[in-house]
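Budget justification note: compute hours in this period were largely spent on complex prediction jobs such as the one shown. Inputs:
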Amino acid sequence: DVVLTQTPVSLSVTPGQPASISCKSSQSLLHGDGKTYLYWYLQRAGQSPQLLIYEVSTRLAGVPDRFSGSGSGTDFTLKISRVEAEDVGIYFCMQTVQLPLTFGGGTKVDIK
Amino acid sequence: QITLKESGPPLVKPTQTLTLTCSFSGFSLTTSEASVGWIRQSPRKALEWIGIIYGDDDKVYNPSLESRLTITKDTSKTQVVLTMTNMAPADTGTYYCGHGLDLWGQGAVVVVSS
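Corresponding output:
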C-alpha cells in the first residue's frame, strides 16, 4: 500500500499568519495518464471531511484562494496564506493513484 | 444539490454483520462515471477507504476488507448498501458514504461491542 506521511502532526497558528502542511508518499503519485492523484481534505470538528484540493493543486469550487496545493512525485504541500478561524480542523491528504486508496495520518490545525 | 445520508445500527455485537444504507439525492448512479464510495474513521481519527461502486455496477474493494465486504446499489431507490461481515471491536468508528470522492455524508457511528 502507498503510505502517506503528514507533518507536522499538529500546528498552532496566529490568525493572519501562513501555515504549511507536508504530505510525503512512499511511491510516486504520478499516473500513467500524466496526472498526479493527490487530494487534500479538511475535517472540521463534528463534520465529515470536506474536499479542498484535487490533483495536487486544483481547488474545488468555492474553496478560498488562500488555500493552495503544490508538489510532484512523492512530495506535496498544502499552504494556507493567511489562516482564519474557520480553517481550524484536521487536514488529510489522500492518494488515488494506486489501490487501495490511502490517507495520511492527518494534521490538526488550531488557532493560537 | 447533492446530499448523502448514512443509516444503520449504532451498536453491533462481535461476529455479527453490519448493514449500512446510504441514501442519496441530486445525482444518478446509472452511468459508469458516477460512483458512491465508503470510508471509515476510527475513534483516533485515522481514515480508511472501504470501497466504491460505480453506476455500471463495477465494484472495487479495499483488499484488506474485501473478504468481508459487499456493496450493492438500488438505483430505483437511490440507495447504496454496505454489508460487512464478522464485525470486531477494531471496526468501531464512523462510516461515511460519498459522491465519488468529493462530497461525504454526515456519517454513521458504529460501535462493535458485546
